[in-house]
TrEMBL record:
Annotated ranges, domain Histidine kinase: 614-719
Organism the protein comes from: Nonomuraea longispora
Name of this protein: histidine kinase
Lineage of producing organism: Bacteria, Bacillati, Actinomycetota, Actinomycetes, Streptosporangiales
Domain of life: Bacteria
Swiss-Prot/TrEMBL catalytic activity: ATP + protein L-histidine = ADP + protein N-phospho-L-histidine
Length: 724
């Protein structure tokens, strides 16, 4: 039913919101329709209680009354038949089944059937265009990586053919940076290519990512071995070939026909660029060496043939504007000069002559490299232009599809609003009492009931604590639930009162037993003191001392019971007591005090009203440290100062320590004393320390170290006084 309360806060910012709203609305509502109380009776053969019946505590009724419904309240008579007939048409008295059917059937049937399919279809189309745009962005990254890697290949071939001179090595190493940057950009964008983009595209992307580390290996081979020019071309070209395959895959896997021609043109230009770049590197190597090495001439001629073939493919699939742009870009003096040099080199190679491009120049390789770069860079510029066109077009298509999806969602929303107008009157009669019931129930659970329980604990008397009923006065299921919740509220207060009385009785029992035991222990201590004064035998005197310590521990155990019962210390000092005396008093209450080493600050005293509690607290911590550390080890009690003016007392042992979980649980109990229960009896000392610390604003924390445990006691400045 909670979902029904959200109809007034419906958000339509997302095209799927209408569908999600109806799902959230329908599922809880149909579950409510199946609840037994809808039909007016509790489920089960033995339930025997009508919905809306006032249920009194079992302890206040006889067995015969348990299954007998109460008569109608005089303030709310069922009325005559005429009044019943009038109530039948009042929305506030309709059954929940009737309201939910009237509220859900029309919106669900009209809005989901009419709007959901159209919204989903439009949004899926927008998602397809988004994938197209991602592919185009990755294609641009591939183009950049191909360009930089091809340039590195040509520089590497030139470096190898020129004899690996330092002059050729420097530009090669400089090119490593742009290649690495382009590869990193590709890795970032390739992370978005998931199997949703097509299994073949995803597999090829993973393959290319796995081949990228080969770039560094190829560099090491070129720089650190005697690899020849042609194998160098081959190694780089193997990586570039995978990039070309990626362009082919993008072309084949285009999601929309509008982009198929541009993607095919981009793929053809990518292959033409690779062939042109390979020619640049091969002829530069031949010019540097003076001739083509074995296999290089055939490779050079094949690269030229591939370039011309791919340019032909490009012209076949490109638009007239793209063909004109290619003609305007891949042209100029450098392109013409490169063609002249190429033809001259081929003629010299055919005659078996030395490759001498410009007889009057000594830098033939650089001259060719500069001239051929005009054509190579022109093709690369075309690649980038077409890639940008693909990206812009795919973005435009995606935005158009998304706008269509939003329009479809808006259309569905209009249908929904039309239906909501029909159901608004009935929904209002249901939502208002539900909200009131929910608000008051939460207020009772979060504020009124805890406050009532607190008052019961303080005064222990339930008289006068009558909870007001929830302000829902309808006679439908909501009103019945409100009356049932009122009964639960009254029963909770009654049980809380009984628990408070029981707790008070237990505390009183603790106090009485502790007082009686304290009296006997105090008498026992007095007798032991008398025996100690008149005893001359050292062995007996030592035994009396041990007995005295045991009696002192028994007295402290009785004081623990008083702390559990919430009683203050019976003994108080009117004047501050020196810190050393406080620690000595704590040592006198533990067994094995001779193992304790005290390193205390001088000139500090503890407020008289807190002395006994601080002594008690320290005794518990010191006794715990002695009990859980080897007999031959020492326990150190030391002090330090805080910037806030307080004092730090540490009890450090070399015992068995605690696990991290145990330490966190113990510190949680020390920070906030838990309610007294059976578990407290197993760790009474921890509870007592928490109670005593809470009483005076003292903080206690346990910390673990390699050799044991450290208990840190932070005394606030309000408990400290100077001591002469």
């Amino acid at each position: 039913m909670t979902s029904l309360l959200c109809w007034g806060r419906f958000d339509v910012s997302h095209p799927f919101q209408a569908v999600r709203w109806f799902v959230r609305l329908a599922l809880p509502a149909w579950r409510v329709l199946k609840l037994p109380f809808i039909s007016g009776y509790a489920s089960g053969a033995d339930a025997g209680v009508y919905v809306g019946q006032r249920v009194e505590p079992v302890s206040n009724r006889s067995p015969a009354d348990v299954h007998r419904p109460h008569p109608p309240s005089p303030s709310r008579p069922h009325g005559r038949n005429g009044e019943k007939g009038r109530r039948k048409f009042r929305f506030r008295d309709w059954r929940v089944r009737s309201r939910l059917i009237a509220l859900i059937v029309i919106p669900t049937g009209v809005s989901i059937v009419v709007g959901a399919q159209q919204v989903i279809t439009s949004w899926n189309l927008a998602s397809q265009y988004q994938r197209v745009m991602d592919k185009s962005e990755l294609s641009a990254s591939v183009t950049e990586l191909t360009h930089q890697l091809a340039l590195e290949r040509d520089l590497a071939v030139h470096y190898v053919a020129a004899g690996r001179t330092p002059e050729r090595e420097e530009p090669l190493r400089t090119q490593f940076g742009p290649v690495d940057a382009a590869a990193e950009d590709f890795r970032d964008k390739a992370a978005a290519i998931t199997p949703a983009y097509g299994e073949s595209a995803s597999a090829l992307t993973r393959q290319l990512l796995s081949r990228l580390p080969e770039i560094a290996a190829t560099r090491n081979t070129v720089l650190g071995s005697e690899l020849l020019a042609l194998p160098t071309v081959t190694k780089y070209s193997q990586i570039i070939a995978v990039l070309a395959q990626f362009h082919d895959q993008i072309g084949k896997g285009g999601d929309q026909e509008e982009l198929a021609g541009d993607v095919a043109a981009l793929s053809a230009l990518s292959k033409a660029y690779d062939a042109a770049s390979e020619q640049r590197g091969l002829l530069a190597a031949a010019a540097a060496a003076g001739r083509f090495q074995s296999g290089e001439l055939d490779r050079f001629i094949a690269a030229r043939a591939r370039q011309e073939s791919e340019v032909t493919v490009f012209r076949a699939v490109a638009t007239p504007e793209q063909r004109q742009l290619y003609d305007d870009t891949v042209t100029g003096t450098l392109v013409d000069r490169a063609e002249v040099i190429r033809l001259r080199a081929l003629a010299q190679a055919a005659e078996g002559d030395r490759i001498d491009i410009e007889p009057e120049r000594q830098d033939d390789a650089d001259h060719w490299f500069e001239a051929s770069s005009g054509s190579v860079n022109g093709i690369w510029t075309m690649q980038r232009r077409i890639g940008e066109e693909i990206n812009v077009q795919s973005r435009t298509l995606k935005d158009a599809a998304r706008q269509e999806a939003l329009l479809a969602a808006a259309y569905s929303l209009l249908l929904l609003l039309a239906v909501l107008i029909i159901t608004a009157i009935m929904a209002r009669s249901l939502v208002s009492p539900l909200r009131r019931l929910r608000t008051e129930a939460l207020h009772i659970a979060g504020a009124r009931l805890p406050e009532t329980v607190r008052l019961l604990r303080e005064r222990g008397d339930q008289a006068g604590l009558v909870p007001p009923p929830i302000g829902v006065d309808s006679r439908d299921e909501i009103g019945e639930v409100a009356r049932a919740f009122d009964e639960v509220h009254r029963e909770a207060i009654r049980l809380a009162g009984e628990e408070s009385r029981l707790r008070a009785n237990v505390n009183a029992m603790f106090v009485n037993l502790s007082r009686r035991s304290q009296t006997m222990v105090q008498r026992q201590i007095q007798i032991i003191d008398g025996l100690e004064q008149g005893e001359q035998d050292e062995r007996r005197l030592a035994g009396l001392f041990s007995l005295d310590h045991l009696a002192t521990r028994m007295r402290r155990n009785n004081e623990n019971l008083l702390v559990l019962a919430g009683q203050d210390a019976p003994r108080r000092y009117n004047e501050p007591v020196g810190l050393a005396d406080v620690v000595r008093a704590a040592l006198s209450e533990v067994e094995g005090y001779e193992r304790v080493v005290a390193k205390l600050a001088e000139g500090v005293a503890v407020s008289g009203q807190a002395v006994n509690d601080i002594v008690h607290l320290l005794a518990e911590l010191i006794e715990n440290a002695l009990a859980f550390s080897p007999y031959e080890t020492r326990v150190t009690v030391a002090t330090g100062t805080m910037e806030s003016g307080g004092l730090v007392l540490t009890v450090d042992d070399t015992g068995i320590g605690m696990t991290q979980d145990e330490l966190e649980q113990a510190n949680a109990r020390l920070a906030r004393a838990p309610t007294v229960d059976v578990s407290v009896s197993r760790r009474m000392g921890l509870f007592v320390v928490a109670r005593l610390a809470q009483r005076h604003g003292v903080r206690v924390e346990l910390r673990s170290h390699k050799a044991g445990l450290t208990a840190i006691v932070l005394l606030p400045g309000s408990l400290l006084h100077p001591h002469l």
